[in-house]
Structure formats: C-alpha cells, structure tokens
Amino acid sequence: MKADNTLFQNKGSKGLTAAQRQALDQIWSIFPEARLVGGVVRDLLMQRPVADVDLATPEPPERVLDLLVQAGVKAVPTGLSHGTITAVIASAPYEITTLRRDTETDGRHAVVSWTTDWREDAARRDFTINAMSRDKDGGLHDYFGGQNDLTQGLVRFVGDATTRIEEDALRILRFFRFQGRYGAGMPDSQAMQAITRHGDLLTLLSVERVWSELQRILTGPSAISQIVLMDQCGVLSRLLPEGADVQRFTSLVQAGAPANAPLRLAALARGNKTILARRLKLSKAEEAFLVAVSSGSVPSVEATDDALRRLLAQEPAESLIGRVWLAQADRGADRTGKNINAADTPEGDDTTGYEALRARLAAMPRPVFPLAGRDVLAAGHPSGPDVGKVLQKVQDWWMQNGCTASRDACLAQLSAALSENLE
After folding, report:
1. Contact, 274 vs 266, CB < 8 A?
2. 53 by DSSP, 3-state: which?
3. Taking every annotated instance into account, which residue ranges of this chain make up the domain tRNA nucleotidyltransferase/poly(A) polymerase RNA and SrmB- binding (predicted)?
C-alpha cells in the first residue's frame, strides 16, 4: 500500500542532511525506480537524524555496477554475491541492493536470488518497521503495517515469527535491540513465544555476530528492560551459561554508568571474565578492560591523593573508575536484595562519595616513575640482574612517598641506595 505522500517533503525529509539529499538526487537520476529501504525510512518517519542511507532496486547488481561507473560514481562491489553495491558520493557510502528472495536458509546465512517484486523483497525482512520503502517522489510503500506498528511502538516480525527466526537466529537478538529502541509497552506475544521456543538456535550463530548485537543491547535504550526480557525467555542463559546477575546490571545502569559495553558486561556476567571474553571473541582492548575492571584493588571513597596516585602509577584511570562503578553497583544491588536502607549503614548514602572519587581519578595525571635501568648504569652500577633490584628499591620509595618525587630527587635516592650497597 502507498501512504500519504505528505509524510515526506519533496525529495528530502527532515533527518536527511543536504549532502544526503544531493547524493540521493544523483542516485535517483541513475536509478529512478530505486527506493530507500530499512532504517532510513524508519528514521524519516520518526523525524530522526539519518546515519546510513540504504536503497534497493530491481536492477541486477552487475547492471547497478555498470550504471554507476558510466555515471562517474565510485562503485564498490561490497557484497556482490548478496546483490549489494556501494556508491561512494562525497566520501559517504550509499548501499544499493538488488531486490532479493531467499532460496535457501540455514539459520545463519541465506542463499538469495534476484527478483523484481518489491513485496517479495519486503517479505524476507525481519520486522514490519524494517520492511517499508520510500520512492523518489516521497511515497511510502508499506506492505505489512510497519507504519502503524512504528506509531504504536510494536516490534513485530514480518509474517510468522518462527519462520523468520528459523531463517536467521540473529533475529532473536535483533528483536530485543529494536524493542529497546522502538518498542512501547508489552512486547509482541507471538514474538516472545517464538523466541522462547527457539532460543537454542542461537548456538548456530558465530560469536562475532552475537557480541555485535549483545553490546548494542547492553548500551542501547531501555537496556534494563531488555535484559530482563532476555532473562525471562531463556535467551540470557544461552548467551551467558556461566550465569548472569541481572540485579547488579540493573544497579549499574540506574547509577548512571556510561554506556560502555565491556563495563556493563562485567556487571552482568558471572564467572571467569577471560574465558568469557575469548568465547565471545572480544577485541584485545575490550578483553583487557573487562578483565581489569573485574579484578584488582577498588579505590576507597576515603582514599588520600597519595593512595590514588599509587594506584594510578600501576594501572590506567579507566580501569580504576570502572571498578568504582562496579563497587557502587554492588552496593546498590546489595541494598535492593536485602532491603537495606541507607540509614542502616555506617556510610549512609555515599553516591556523592563515588562520584567525587571518580572525578578525582579522572582529573589526576597518571604518575610515571622518572628513572630507568640506564640511570642505574649511568650512576656507576655494573650491568646485571641487580640493576632491576636497585631500580625497584628506588621505585618503592617513590611509591611510598605518593609518586610525587622529581627525577632529581629520585636520582638522589638512587645514589643513596648505591652507597648503601657499597657499605
């Protein structure tokens, strides 16, 4: 069906930048039958800024590639086997995908063939709010009631929920991501029933795809409610078989912790974090942060500047700040679980204390010990294993004194240490 064209203003809409509108004019001059599809249509309807602009066309991919080249547009065959060519205009990518039908699915990937039927292409998409398209004249093509679902805050699978999930199990996780961003009220009952029955299909997915979706759920809108839903329908236990602490995660988010995926994963997941990070194939930086915030010393809200500098000399501020967030989450979860009032604890409500501690850590420069092994050699000590011992002795002194001693002061302490050794 075609909706009221007044939803869109001419060839552009609120949410598209001037550069995007110009690029679309150029693309539509080459492919007049092409339509905007997916998220861009959804964002335009909601008058949100548009990040990615995707289009579909009945033209086969080889023809799309040829026409772009003939028009002098840079064309990159980013997904030729799936019918996708990326047009690069003013350094920005615009994906143009040939209309498709699924000829074979296995729960992970689909084998596709080309079609000229817009409804058939829309029918293979996951949710009704993602199955709409918009033509160059501003007309909205909505075959499955996506516009109404978007208005009502209903995230609903196109057609039969079980069929959509069996085609690609990642849609289970995508449901919670979209429910968090666009859903309102109770989730679609048919979707939840299908997800509960077929959660075991998640084991078919690569861990990279799982982590890509999970981190967007952890840091997205309504993260708490989506994690609770995932827990209720058994999805969370499949993703985190080591166990999940929903209460701790809730406490962390409610405390105002940043939308940092490894930090939120640290609050949610139980068990060995190194094993978890490698199972989910986190990046090296993500793994290092996850492990660091989940172990080690937690700064006290009453710590002196000297004590904080000693901690900062050994590890970065972001790890220490992350531990402070988790400590605050633990305190909140403990009070919730045991129904403890702030007045029942000696420290009372120390939210302000945690905030001040994080601010101190963030503002404090990380101390760097000013000496190295070459300084020991330059002072006349012979090379060998004792060089490290002497240097460590001076560094221990530097740490004990709050990591504030200058290089000259440390050199003087080195000289004194060497004199003691001679004696």
Report:
1. no
2. strand
3. 189-243
CA distance 423 to 417: 10
Please give the pLDDT value at position 264: 98
Tokens of 2: 């075609």
What is the DSSP secondary-structure string of 160-177? -HHHHHHHBTHHHHHHHH
pTM of the full predicted structure? Answer: 0.87
b/e code 87-122 from CB counts within 10 Å (16+ = b):
bebeeeebbbbbbbeeeebebeebebeeeeebeebb
Distance CA 96, CA 337 (A): 52
Q: DSSP secondary structure string, 369-415?
A: ----HHHHHHTTPPSSTHHHHHHHHHHHHHHHTTT---HHHHHHHHH
Beta bridge partners of 140: 134
| CATH number given to 156-239 | 1.10.3090.10
User: Which residues have C-beta within 8 Å of that of residue 365, sequence separation ≥ 6?
Assistant: none
What are 256's two structure tokens? 């105002």
The CA-based angle 197-198-200, given to 5 degrees, is 120
CA gyration radius, the chain: 29
pLDDT of 5 > 60? The answer is: no
φ, ψ at 119 (rounded to 5°): -65, -40
Q: What is the pLDDT of residues 115-164, one digit of tens each?
A: 999 999 999 999 999 999 999 999 999 999 999 999 999 999 999 999 99
Cα maximum dimension of the chain = 95
Instruction: Give the percent of the chain with pLDDT over 90.
Output: 84
**Position 25, amino acid:** D
Strand 53-57 relative to strand 92-98: parallel, antiparallel, unpaired? parallel
**Which of the 8 DSSP states describes residue 198?**
S
- Would you give the DSSP letter of residue 260? -
- Rounded Cα distance between 96 and 90, Å, is 16
d(CA 86, CA 214): 27
Angle at alpha carbon of residue 83, lines to 80 and 88, rounded to 5°? 70
- Model confidence pLDDT, tens digit, residues 218-244: 999 999 999 999 999 999 999 999 999
255 Cβ neighbours under 8 A, 6+ residues apart: 325, 328, 329, 332, 351, 354
Taking a C-beta distance cutoff of 8 angstroms, is the pair 310, 399 a contact? Answer: yes
Tokens of 125: 């998409």
Q: Is CATH 3.10.310.40 correct for 1-152?
A: no
Q: Provide the residue ranges of all domains of the chain, joining segments of one domain with +.
A: 1-152, 156-239, 260-367, 373-422
Q: For 72-131, what is each residue's pLDDT tens digit?
A: 999 999 988 889 999 999 999 999 999 998 876 665 666 789 999 999 999 999 999 999
